[in-house]
């Protein structure tokens, strides 16, 4: 699972960070750091709760297979077509 | 007070008899529930025109859906925040800062002030906030089994914390609360008098801090630089007035409404008392159910918005208390569910003007409830008394006599 971060929409409510401070990192002003977030297997519930508490809808949960396995998994392995 | 006429471009069928100032439950009401009273806005169309919905008698479009309020408040190009709400009381037009500045001018001031009220900074303030709450409650329990929560706890607690932040002594507390009361709930004579006192006071404080700097907000502002220059006297005044007004009334009102709810709902009171870990999440639900603020924007151009012919200069109201009772956003919106999850409420607004003090406000409410519940046994509203609530520019609760004898 991956959290897509729409940085321009973040207004510093910090609700994601309040739910899951280890997953959602803030800058010194209290706004989310840029970049999508790859979520580890055991942290999916917490991450999804954090994302779903954003009043601005700045965080999007991506559960596609690409998101599940991460960008590395999408690279063809050596020897594969 | 003169009520402004409905503009010609507003279709008569879109006008609805509704006002946060005059509708049933909005004037001072014993045992009132103004938030529930305005939730009736959802019985009608998603957008309508209210002919009298500001302190100065102007009409506004009323946006009832949370999703539409989000659109309005995030679109600062179409919906300006420059309303001169404070200075217009004096017949002037200067903005409070950063609230009444639009991007991009807004950004530099917001960045200047954001670190002062960031989650990290607020965490550092927490011990002082808790100490203040405990001292006030201990003083109450030492001599009584009943008190007026607004007078004896909510106001002295929230106002003294913010006075310290601004750099003002506690001795001024009663005077400042009096000014805020006149400004926000007073009549046409009281409001300009209060506004003038506040401006004079902020100007004088700025002058003093320039001469004798100390470690406080006003000193920080008079020494700060924006884009390589010092702030002008007008900018300093705009910031000082906003911080002064924003901190005086809102958090105290929230704590009052929250404790009134718990006094009337003993199961929930018991739940939070026996499992204080729940207070953090419960506070979000209480912020959803009892937010104090209506946000107003001014259309910068003609736009047809979700079927409403909004024209340049029209006022557009995003009342947080209406968004927070939107059935399309919240399941059973009129039920207070202290365990509600994913609580994306609008108590602090949406968009770039999201309440700068929201993190401090949250901590004050959480700590206030934690310490109150830890120190006061089961409390009820004192028999024979009725808290007086009111709607308006800031929803409020004037008195709340609790009894735990």
From TrEMBL, chain A:
GO terms for molecular function: iron-sulfur cluster binding; metal ion binding. Transmembrane segments: none annotated. InterPro entries: Fe-S_cluster_ET (IPR051269). Keywords: Electron transport, Iron, Iron-sulfur, Metal-binding, Transport. This is Ferredoxin. Pfam families: Fer4_15. The lineage of its organism: Bacteria, Pseudomonadati, Pseudomonadota, Alphaproteobacteria, Hyphomicrobiales.
Automatic annotation (TrEMBL), chain B:
The keyword Cytoplasm does not apply. InterPro entries: Cyt_P450 (IPR001128), Cyt_P450_B (IPR002397), Cyt_P450_CS (IPR017972), Cyt_P450_sf (IPR036396). GO terms for molecular function: heme binding; iron ion binding; monooxygenase activity; oxidoreductase activity, acting on paired donors, with incorporation or reduction of molecular oxygen. Coiled coil: none annotated. PROSITE patterns: CYTOCHROME_P450. It comes from the Bacteria. Keywords: Heme, Iron, Metal-binding, Monooxygenase, Oxidoreductase. Pfam families: p450. Its cofactor is heme. SUPFAM superfamilies: Cytochrome P450. PANTHER family: P450, PUTATIVE (EUROFUNG)-RELATED. Belongs to the cytochrome P450 family. This is Cytochrome P450.
């Amino acid at each position: 699972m991956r959290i897509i971060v729409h940085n321009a929409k973040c207004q510093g409510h910090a609700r994601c960070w309040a739910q899951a401070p280890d997953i959602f990192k803030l800058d010194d002003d209290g706004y989310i750091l840029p970049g999508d977030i790859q979520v580890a297997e055991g942290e999916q519930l917490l991450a999804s709760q954090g994302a779903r508490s954003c009043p601005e809808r700045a965080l999007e949960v991506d559960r596609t297979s690409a998101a599940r396995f991460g960008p590395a998994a999408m690279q063809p392995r050596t020897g594969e077509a | 007070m003169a009520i402004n006429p409905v503009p010609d471009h507003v279709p008569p069928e879109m006008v609805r008899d509704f006002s946060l100032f005059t509708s049933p439950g909005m004037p001072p009401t014993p045992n009132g529930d103004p938030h529930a009273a305005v939730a009736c806005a959802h019985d009608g169309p998603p957008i309508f025109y209210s002919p009298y919905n500001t302190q100065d008698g102007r009409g506004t479009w009323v946006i009832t859906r949370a999703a539409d309020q989000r659109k309005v408040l995030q679109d600062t190009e179409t919906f300006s925040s420059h309303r001169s709400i404070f200075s217009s009381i004096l017949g002037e037009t200067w903005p409070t800062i950063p609230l009444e500045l639009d991007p991009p001018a807004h950004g530099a001031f917001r960045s200047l002030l954001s670190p002062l009220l960031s989650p990290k900074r607020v965490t550092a303030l927490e011990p002082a906030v808790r100490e203040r709450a405990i001292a006030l409650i201990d003083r109450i329990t030492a001599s009584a089994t009943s008190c007026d929560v607004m007078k004896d706890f909510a106001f002295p607690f929230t106002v003294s914390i913010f006075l310290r932040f601004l750099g003002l002594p506690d001795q001024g507390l009663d005077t400042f609360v009096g000014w805020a009361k006149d400004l926000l709930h007073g009549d046409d004579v009281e409001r300009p008098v209060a506004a003038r006192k506040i401006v004079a006071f902020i100007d004088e404080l700025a002058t003093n801090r320039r001469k004798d700097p100390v470690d406080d907000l006003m000193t920080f502002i008079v020494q700060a630089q924006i884009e390589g220059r010092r702030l002008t006297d007008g900018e300093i005044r705009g910031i000082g007035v906003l911080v002064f007004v924003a901190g005086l009334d809102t958090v105290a009102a929230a704590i009052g409404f929250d404790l009134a709810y718990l006094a009337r709902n003993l199961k929930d009171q018991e739940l939070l008392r026996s499992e204080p870990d729940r207070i953090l999440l419960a506070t979000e639900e209480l912020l959803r159910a009892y937010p104090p603020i209506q946000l107003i924007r001014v259309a910068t151009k003609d736009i047809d918005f979700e079927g409403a012919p909004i024209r340049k200069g029209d006022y557009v109201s995003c009342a947080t208390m209406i968004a927070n009772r939107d059935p399309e956003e919240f399941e059973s919106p009129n039920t207070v569910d202290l365990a509600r999850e994913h609580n994306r409420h609008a108590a602090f607004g949406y968009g770039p003007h999201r309440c700068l003090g929201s993190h401090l406000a949250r901590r004050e409410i959480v700590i206030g409830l934690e310490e109150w519940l830890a120190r006061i046994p089961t409390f009820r509203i004192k028999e024979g008394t009725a808290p007086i609530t009111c709607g308006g520019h800031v929803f409020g609760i004037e008195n709340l006599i609790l009894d735990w004898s």
